[in-house]
Write a structure and sequence with these properties.
The complex is a heterodimer of chains A (80) and B (369). Helix content of chain A is 90%, strand content 0%. Chain A is mainly α. Chain A has one domain. In chain A, α2 runs antiparallel to α3. By secondary structure, chain B is mainly α. Chain B has one domain. Chain B is 75% helix and 0% strand. In chain B, α1 packs across α7, α2 runs antiparallel to α7 and α5 packs antiparallel against α9. Chain B is elongated. The chains are: A mainly alpha (80), B mainly alpha (369). At the A-B interface, α1, α2 and α3 of A face α5, α6 and α9 of B.
Chain lengths: 80, 369
């Protein structure tokens, strides 16, 4: 009961949810970028230009998402 | 005159603590990058020290909140702060010797609480605040980071599972440059400010700064940033080895997930104003990244020693801080006590280093890999 009243559970919940979304989101996006880059190289080597272009686009979008999350993190730190 | 001498000693001791903080916590930032060979040891600590230095200039919010609400600010004297700092430095050096990553923030809080109890009594410490702001976050930080890193690594393995390991390793190594950089920046922002806060409190107590006009002088920011950066560059190789390879043998995806989870948790906690220890967060992340793959991949004996060190940090730093305060009072309330303790501490550290030089350094940059 004492714990329930003195600990800021609401803020703690926000920290847990935000860090989960950020970390899992960035890992997901970066992993997709790695897959995109690897497949793009393989497709280009096999002469499959359309597929290589599609994987390149996937890689760029995923990298942009990862980069945006990093920039957002730095902005959070600098505007604290 | 006596007050001036105590102020100089407190500032020097606070900067010494800042150095041990950087030295002790280098592992938080670089261990995973070194372990997965994303960076060479020397480049990793150089990179981390530059970003720690830069991070110290980003924000000054934490500087105003050191030990706020935990101890009675009206009772704080320069000698209490000095004894608390000695407790924190001593505990940082002890845990470094045993290669155990423990929280420098908790050591500082423990040291100040211990010296405060010795000087004024338990009435000067707010137990509820200590529980809410220190003990509960200490329990929560590793659990949150453990879960987040564990889920992140499962997601990563699921996505890159069918791709050749070569490109995957190269990709995550590149990613670790960014995730490690973010961690170093976050560490500099959080940790250098504790020293700034302590020095500023000493300046207020001395009358250099008005109590109702809390601001951190530029020389304090620059000297604190320099001390933590130099400490980081010195590299606490014993703890780097524990964090990088003794808890789990990490692959690059695990390193990326652990660092990413660590950076995310630290930034989220900063953003929402819920203080968490960087050491507890990164340790939890490393364990989570290992356990998600296979529970037996984590060396639970090493993890148990770390958790024991976390539990002991506040009482031990507090006990050393309290005893130090008692020793200073043997010599009265003037500057003699802090001078005697400082000289004795310097002689002790000198003797230990002289012995180490004679025997040869057991843990080096090369051994950190």
């Amino acid at each position: 009961m004492v714990l329930a009243s003195i600990v800021d559970w609401e803020t703690l919940g926000k920290v847990a949810v935000a860090s989960f979304l950020a970390a899992v989101g960035v890992t997901l996006a970066f992993s997709v970028a790695i897959v995109g880059a690897t497949r793009m190289v393989e497709m280009r080597r096999d002469g499959r230009g359309v597929e290589a272009g599609a994987y390149a686009a996937l890689m760029i979008i995923a990298l942009a998402a990862s980069g945006a999350a990093v920039v957002f993190g730095v902005v959070i730190m600098t505007t604290k | 005159m006596s007050d001036d001498v105590i102020l100089v000693i407190v500032v020097a001791t606070a900067l010494a603590f800042d150095f041990t903080n950087g030295f002790h916590d280098t592992a938080n930032v670089v261990a995973t990058s070194i372990s997965t060979r994303a960076l060479s040891p020397r480049i990793a600590v150089g990179f981390a020290s530059i970003l720690n230095f830069a991070g110290a200039f980003i924000s000054l919010e934490v500087a105003a909140t050191v030990a706020k609400g935990i101890v009675d600010a009206g009772e704080i004297t320069s000698t209490i702060v000095f004894a608390g700092l000695v407790g924190a430095i001593a505990w940082n050096l002890i845990t470094w010797y045993f290669g155990l990553p423990s929280s420098s923030s908790h050591a500082l809080i423990g040291g100040v609480v211990g010296s405060m109890v010795a000087a004024v009594g338990f009435s000067a410490v707010d137990g509820e605040s200590l529980l809410a702001k220190v003990f509960v976050p200490a329990l929560v930080a590793p659990l949150v980071a453990f879960s987040v890193a564990g889920i992140a690594i499962l997601v990563a393995y699921r996505i890159v599972g069918r791709v050749r390991p070569g490109p995957v390793n190269r990709g995550f190594r590149l990613g670790q440059l960014v995730s490690g950089g973010l961690l170093a920046l976050a560490h500099g922002t959080n940790d250098a400010q504790k020293t700034m806060g302590i020095i500023t409190l000493a300046l207020i107590a001395h009358g250099n700064i008005a109590a109702d006009n809390f601001h951190v002088p530029t020389w304090v920011v620059v000297s604190s940033a320099t001390a933590i950066a130099l400490g980081t560059y010195s590299g606490g190789w014993r703890i780097i080895r524990t964090m990088g390879s003794r808890i789990i043998k990490m692959d690059t995806a695990q390193g990326f997930s652990a660092q990413g989870a660590g950076a995310a948790v630290i930034m989220a906690s900063s953003h929402f104003g819920y203080p968490l220890s960087t050491t507890h967060v990164i340790s939890g992340g490393v364990m989570g990244a290992g356990a998600a793959r296979r529970l037996s991949a984590v060396r639970w004996g090493v993890a148990g020693n770390m958790i024991l060190a976390w539990i002991l940090t506040i009482p031990m730093a507090g006990a050393i801080g309290g005893v130090t305060y008692g020793i200073t009072r043997i010599f009265g309330t003037g500057a003699v006590g802090p001078v005697v303790v400082s000289v004795a501490g310097l002689i002790l550290i000198g003797l230990v280093f002289a012995r180490r030089v004679q025997r040869g350094s057991p843990i080096t940059a090369g051994a950190g890999t």
